[in-house]
Design goal:
Radius of gyration: 19 Å
Order of helices and strands: EEHHEHEHEHEH
Oligomer: single chain
Helix content: 25-40%
Number of helices: 6
Structural class: alpha/beta
Strand content: 5-15%
Low-confidence stretches: 1-15
Mean pLDDT: 89
Number of strands: 6
Amino acid sequence: MSEQSVGGGEVSVSVGGTDERPLGIDELLERVRAGYERINPREAYEAAQGGEALLVDIRYAALRERDGLIPGALVIERNELEWRLDPQGSHRTPEATSHDLRVVLLCNEGYASSLAVESLRRLGLHRATDLVGGFQAWRGQGLPVQSRGGAEA
């Protein structure tokens, strides 16, 4: 926070767009998640099967290699997410057709995906959400997983 003199008086001016104290990661996650409704693995499975949602796996390659893939999920690593899902972007994936697209992000355990949802919502993807518990919850509920070679795991 900086102070700036205007017309003889002191006026508070925020730096970086906020005058709040820094947040810890747990509080940040709580605030981000309060802004949208998360989805459980069974709901995500049914929405994807019904063509109502696009599942997007943002896990990095080593986790996908180790644990497998969700059949039909689009793989976009976290560092490319905004560029690939912005419907107005020059590097968008063909699936990024509209700001109305219902995107369900999943990471390994449901933490990084929550922060990524916030970013997508800032780009106008107002239906973006994430999977509670991530890939581990999906697998834990016995939903379909395939090994990297294509066989059911």
